[in-house]
Amino acid sequence: MIKEAIATGATVEEAKEKACQELGVETYDDRIEFEILEMQAKKMFGLFGGHPAKVKVTLKQSAAQAAEDFIRNIIDRMELTGITLSTKDEDNVITIDIEGEDVGFIIGRRGETMDALQYLTCLAANRVDPAYKRVVINTGDYREKREKTLESLGRRLAIKAAKTGKKSILEPMNPYERRIIHTSVQKVDGATSWSEGENLNRHVVIGPDGKRSNNRGRGGKGGRRPNNGRGRYNSRPKQQSPAPDPDRKPLNEGAGMGLYGRIDK
Fold first, then answer.
1. What digits encode the pLDDT tens for the residues 110-130?
2. What are the pLDDT digits (tens) for 225-252?
3. Contact 121, 93 (CB under 8 A)
C-alpha cells in the first residue's frame, strides 16, 4: 500500500489533488497530511524561468490498518497460504478474524500462539494512534468455544470442591482465561478460587469456601442416624450438586478488561 506521493501542478491545489489521486484518496480525507515542497513561480517576462508547484501528500496509517499489516507480515513469514483477514474498528476495539485451512498454526496450543500474536499486534496498532485501541484476534468461533469450555471446567471443579472439600490446581493461564474461571467458580455456593504463581506460571486454584461450606458433622443435620438402636446407620441422603447462584456476584470479574488485563486475586 502506497503511503505517500509527490506531484506537481500549475498551483499547489492542483499538485495536491494529483498526489491524492495517486494515493486513491480525496483531498478532504482527514487521514492525509501534505507538505509544500516548492511554490509555483511564473516565468519572467513570460520567456524563461518559473516552475510548477510541488507537493508531497502522506497518508497516515490508521491503527486498524497497522494491526492488519502487522498480522499479514507475520503470516507471510510463516509461509501460510489461503489465509483471509476481516478487520473491524468499532468503539476503540479492533477485531480481526482470521480464516483459512492453516489457522491451526496461528491458534497454537490452547490458543497460546494467537494470544501472543494478539498482544504484539496491539503494540503495533497503538504505535500509530495516540488513542488506545484494544485488539481482539479470533479464528472462526475459537474464543467463544474456549470460553464455554473454561466456564464448564470452572463450574465442574467448583461443584467438586464444594462436595468433597478438596481443592484443584489448574494449569497456567493468561489473565483473561483466569478471570473466566474465577467468574464461573464464584457463582457456585460452597466454592471459591484464587490465583497462585508468578508470570507465566500463574494459575488458578479452586477449593471449598469455608464461609459457605455445608455442615458435614455426625449427629447433626446431614449426619448419619442410628437405625433401631442396632448400631447400624442409615446412609446419608445423597447431596445435590450446588446450583449456580445468579445473584452471587463474582469477586474479581473485572469488567472491561482485555486479554492481558490485571487480576488482583
1. 788 888 899 999 999 988 877
2. 445 545 444 444 454 545 555 445 444 4
3. no
- Report how far residue 69's alpha carbon sits from residue 73's, in angstroms, rounded to the nearest whole number: 6
Burial class (CB in 10 A: 0-12, 13-18, 19+), 90: exposed
Grid-cell match 492542483, residue found = 14
HSE (side-chain half, CA atoms, 13 Å) at 90: 4
How confident is the model over 22-32, as pLDDT tens digits?
A: 877 777 776 77
Nearest partner of 132 among 93, 167, 166, 78, judged by Cα: 93
Report all structural domains of the chain as residue ranges with CATH numbers, in order of start: 4-59 (no CATH), 63-140 (3.30.300.20), 144-213 (3.30.1370.50)
Strand, helix or coil for residue 78: coil
Angle among Cα 91, 94, 96 to the nearest 5 degrees reads 140
